[in-house]
Structures are given as C-alpha cells and as structure tokens.
Design a protein that fits this description.
Length: about 625
C-alpha cells in the first residue's frame, strides 16, 4: 500500500498552520496571502463556502459529508478552541494565481491571449458544475485586470502579482471597485438597478470597476432586461464577470454579449494529485488509495474534495496516527470496499446466492448504504466494459487491474450490457424501495439468476429456430377461424390460388385495392374468371364491382364476382394474424422463453420486424 509519507510535524500543527505558514520552511505560494486570522462568518460566506456548510460555522467537519458517513464518531477534532477556528482547506487553498487553478489550462490560455492583445470582453461568463472554481476564476480575473504590480506601475496581466493593494484587497474580498453579488439572493430588478446606477460612476481606486455576479441564471427576467441595457453599451471602465451552474437558463441576449469560459470538471487523477500536494503542505501523510477515493467522491469539484479531505484529516487525527487511511476514508464516505465489491460481483457471476447475500449483509453491517453497494457494482461493470473496449483497465491497484481484465476477457459484450441494464433497474428499485436493503438483495439475486440465462445472441438464434419451425400449429390456428363463427369450412382450398392473384392486383392496380382484397375477401370458391366470396364480420360495403374491375384489370380477362352467404376461407389478413398468434404462442411456450418470462415477469415479447408473409414488411394490419 503506497503511502505518501512526508516529514510530518505533530498533528496539532495543522490546526495552527493557517496562522504559521513559516513553520514549513519554504512557504507555499498560496500562503503568501490570507495570513489573516480566523475568518469571520461573512468572509467564509464570501469565500463561497456557505453552500457547502449550510451554516457558515468556521470549523469542520462539513455537514454534507457527515450525512452519508458511516457510523463513526463525527465530533469535531480536538475541539479547537473557538478563539482560533481552523481555516478550512477549501478556503486556505483557494487558488491565488492562474497557475494554481488546476484543470482549466485552456481557459487560462485564452484569457492570457486576450489580455496580451488587449482584446478583453466587457463581460465574461464562467460556466461549470459547482466547485470547479468559477468564483475563484472570477476573482482571479478581477485581480488580473486590476493588478498594478509591486511597483504600482504594472498593467493588466495574466500573472497578477498578489502583492499590490488591488491584488490583496480582491483576494480578501474587500476591494471597493470589485462588487460581488449572489444572484441567488438578489434576484430582483431593484438589485440590478442599483448596479446599473452605480455603473455610471468611475472606479474609485482601480483600473476597472468589476461586477462579479454569481449564479447569474437566478436573476429574474426583468432583472436580465435591465442588465442587458448596460451590457449593450457598458462604460469602458466596467467589466462584468458572471458565473453560473446552469447556462441553459440564461437568455441568449445575455449569452451573446459575454465571452464564455466553460470550466471543466477536474479529472480524478488530477484531483488526487492536487490533494497529495495539499497533504504535503499540511504535513499530513496519506495513503494514495485514500486520496484516490476522496478524488472520486469529489466528482470533479476541488472544493468538495477539499472539504472531504478536511474531514478525512480530522478522522486521521482522531485515530492518533495522523495518517489518512483508505479504510477510514471508505468508512467515512460509506463506500463499498473495492475488494468486497469485487467479491460480490464474483459471487453474482458464479451464481452463488448464499454468498451474494453474505456479501450484502457484511457490507451493510459495515455501514455501506445499499444504494452505494449497487452503484459500486455498476461502476465495476462499467469499468469492465470500458476495459473490454479499450483493452486497458482503469484501476487503482494491481489486484483491481487484474480482476477487471479477467472479467473483460471472460464476459461477452452482450452479457456486460445486460448486467448493466439489470443493475440500473435494481438501482431504481433500491432508490425508491421502502426497505433499500431488501431491494438490493432482490435486485442482486435477480442479476445472478439472469447471469445463468443464455446471452441475447444465443436466445435470438433459438427463437429464430422456433419461429422458423413451420406450420403444424400455424395451419391449425389459421383454420380455427379467428372470426369465432364456428368451425372452419372443411371445403378444399380454392382451385385457383388466391394470394398470387392478390399480388397481381397489387402490382397492376394498386396496393389500396390489394389491401381491400386481403382484408375483406373470404374466398368461397375461385376458378378462372369466377370468384365467389364472403365478407368477414364488420365489412358490409358492397365491393363486388370494385373487385370485378380490379381482377379484370390485373388479369386482362373478364370476371364474374359474387358475394354469397357462406363462411369461406379466412381472409389473407385473418390468416396472417392467426399465424402470428400461433408463432408467438409457440415461442412463449418454448422452455427458454418460459424461463425468461418467469425470471422477468415484466418482460414483453417484442416481435422483430421481418418480412411479413403478406403485403411486405412493416404492415400493421390491426385496425
Ligand atoms: Zn497585483
């Protein structure tokens, strides 16, 4: 197990480190600022933490993680005296330069070019999921635009000095010309009007007056309209920096006036690396796997990840060893143990029901939520599928890689897709079930039973064989007339074949006429030049003349056509439907399908579209 071990100062140092960065010899660049003391609640709020912590209490652990944590002691670490609140990592490691903003290189490059060429837009829009650094970026841009350099003579730069008065004031959120507003709490037109009126006045002390509007999509329509007027012709000294998680909700009129930056979710490996870096700076040792877990749980958000890391470090301190361990992080996050997860999938695929239930029970006892268990297996199946397609497994450990590659070789693509479908369904059930544990057990057992079934390809071939096995039953069904009016006529088939004649009509006269014949004509007798027919129940239209003309046109001969009071042979449509019903019945009765239907009561037999016996493909005869 690879530990990233660093020369760790005593754990208590961490609590103080926010105020004593010098203790680490080389001061990390991001600590050159914000050497202020405890942040006030308002500062934390401004730092964008409020959404993370509910109440902006300046001590960890964050409530969000606590909610899903395993049953472990969650009391705050070492009860730091309220006089010296611990500065949360997410705030402490808020990037202060573009270089520290991880995962957004493309955006930084574009911005650097714009600054270099002095082609700065009046409005910027930062989009992306929460926690990817939209507000941080907005502040960095504010710094970049207003930095005057250490000597007070610099111009706009992609590399703000971080030392001049504008830089420090912006970093601390107290610059008079950089106005931050959260649209979530100021949605009204009055709030915007306030801005617009202030826009007219020049910046007090900086180069640009900068408005940072967070969650801008929350503004009301009227507010947008008011804003738009300003955006159309903003005074040269004003810049707008908008941030939003839901860019779709912005009016096009606003979008079209902004230079847009899409901030990407940060990939897990990059996050893990960043967290390793943070741990090192904090003097905390952490297992690689633990950091990988934190990174995965962060789902692309640096801020969320750092909050989880905060919590993990607090747990490590509680343990007394100060080492952030994978096992503890797993407990904390309520994640399924990777190896246990693999064991469970093994049991499912091997069809060992008792073992499946054992695994579920064990994981549940360890505090793993049933829903996470199913998700864990889904994640595994997904990664096996990817490994199969790409030929390389994305694994956190050698054992995991070996297992993934083994499965990728052993399972067919069809099987994997079916597993995924079944798990997805199970996931829905677990989510909505009154008892998630029971639902998870049932879902996994169902997956296990289905693993026995032949793969869909083989099933399809079997069905084809059955369907192709002809007519014994089909003929029987066809003659037990679906019209329900008693026994079918024992009369021999007409002397002249009817179906080819109808096809001739279709070719020579048209499909409409041919369909009339197929639907309405029960042949009683058919000889050259003479058709006697009956109509099935429900058809009363007199079609004799039509039929006569059609047959004459198709055959080039005169026809005598008469309707008689007799049963007649079922119409072609009736025959086709009877055949179909008989086939479906035969398919349904075949042992394979019967087993499938028993396993999946909600399954439906879906007929594959194929050349129908009459009238070409895809004809739906149901009226
Ligand atoms: Zn500066």
């Amino acid at each position: 197990m690879g530990h990233s071990t660093f020369a760790a100062p005593p754990p208590t140092l961490r609590d103080m480190s926010g105020d004593s960065p010098d203790m680490f010899g080389d001061t990390p660049p991001w600590e050159t600022e914000e050497q202020d003391d405890a942040p006030s609640a308002a500062e934390l709020e401004a730092a964008g933490q409020s959404s993370m912590f509910g109440e902006p209490a300046p001590t960890p652990p964050p409530a969000r993680v606590a909610e899903q944590a395993a049953p472990v002691d969650l009391s705050p670490p070492k009860a730091a005296p309220p006089a010296q609140p611990y500065r949360v990592l997410a705030r402490k490691y808020r990037p202060q330069t573009f270089a520290q903003l991880i995962g957004q290189e493309a955006m930084v490059r574009t911005l650097a070019n714009a600054i270099k060429r002095d082609r700065l837009a009046h409005a910027f829009l930062m989009t992306g999921v929460r926690g990817v650094g939209k507000t941080s970026t907005a502040r960095l841009i504010a710094k970049a635009l207003n930095c005057i350099g250490p000597d007070g003579k610099g111009g706009p730069t992609i590399d703000p000095c971080g030392q001049c008065e504008p830089c420090t004031a912006i970093a601390e959120g107290r610059h008079i010309d950089v106005i931050e507003m959260d649209a979530a709490s100021h949605t009204g037109v009055d709030d915007v009007r306030e801005i617009i009126e202030a826009v007219r006045y020049a910046a007090v002390s900086a180069r640009y007056k900068i408005y940072i509007i967070d969650e801008v999509h929350m503004l009301s329509r009227n507010a947008f309209n008011a804003l738009l007027k300003t955006l159309e012709e903003p005074p040269a000294h004003v810049k707008f920096l908008f941030a939003t998680t839901e860019v779709d909700k912005l009016p096009v009129t606003v979008l079209s006036r902004c230079q847009r930056f899409d901030l990407r979710r940060i990939p897990s490996p990059m996050l893990a690396e960043h967290f390793a870096h943070v741990c090192k700076s904090e003097g905390v040792a952490a297992e690689d796997e633990a950091l990988a877990m934190v990174a995965a749980a962060a789902e692309g958000s640096v801020r969320d990840g750092l909050s989880i890391l905060d919590q993990a470090i607090a747990h490590a301190d509680l343990d007394g060893e100060g080492l952030v361990q994978a096992a503890r992080v797993r407990d904390m996050l309520g994640l399924a143990d990777k190896s246990a997860r693999r064991g469970l999938l093994d049991a499912v695929l091997a069809g060992e029901g008792a073992s499946v239930l054992d695994h579920v029970a064990q994981q549940f006892a360890l505090g793993v939520e049933p829903i996470n268990l199913v998700r864990g297996i889904m994640d595994l199946v997904h990664r096996i599928t990817v490994a199969q397609v790409s030929g390389a497994a994305d694994a956190h450990s050698a054992e995991e890689r070996e297992a993934l590659e083994g499965w990728a070789k052993g399972l067919s693509a069809g099987q994997l897709h079916r597993l995924w479908q079944l798990l997805l369904k199970g996931h829905e059930e677990v989510k909505s079930a009154p008892d998630p544990l029971v639902a998870a057990q049932m879902a996994l057992l169902r997956v296990m039973h289905a693993a026995d079934l032949p793969d869909p390809g083989m099933l399809a071939r079997k069905l084809e064989e059955i369907a192709a096995r002809p007519p014994a039953s089909a003929t029987a069904a066809a003659s037990s007339s679906p019209s329900g009016s008693g026994a079918a006529p024992a009369a021999a088939l007409p002397a002249m074949p009817w179906e080819p004649l109808v096809e001739m009509v279709e070719r020579e006269v048209g499909i409409g006429m041919a369909d009339t014949l197929r639907m309405q004509v029960r042949v009683v007798s058919l000889e050259h030049g003479h058709l006697r027919y009956a109509q099935p129940p429900g058809f009363n239209e007199d079609i004799a003349a039509l039929v006569r003309n059609a047959l004459a046109k198709a055959t080039g001969a005169a026809w005598q056509v008469e309707k008689v009071a007799a049963e007649g042979t079922p119409t072609l449509v009736e025959q086709a439907e009877a055949r179909k019903a008989a086939e479906a019945d035969a398919v349904r009765r075949s042992p394979l399908v019967a087993a499938t239907l028993a396993a999946f009561p909600e399954a439906e037999l879906i007929e594959e579209e194929r050349q129908s016996a009459i009238g070409g493909a895809r004809r739906n005869w149901r009226r």
